Model the fold of this input.
Amino acid sequence: MWTLALRGGARVAVVAAQWCDAFGVVTRGRVQLELRDGEPGPVLERDAGFWLRGTGVRALRNPGRRTARVRIVTPGLRNDGGTT
Done:
């Protein structure tokens, strides 16, 4: 498990090989899912959980001004981000 911090307006690409089977929970702020076709997806608020596998999400974006945080759980990875 690890935490992703997104500053206001920041965007991070979702690379399938790195995010395979990842589950995220918004713990602070709001996060918008950006779909593969470039269209804006839903905006998720605190305590919202989401899977990335098979969803067509290509990026996570913070639509707000304050830093948003997302806890990411990826099966098969140790807590420090290394592989098992």
Summary: The chain is about 5% helix and 45% strand. The first helix runs from residue 16 to 19. The radius of gyration is 12 Å.
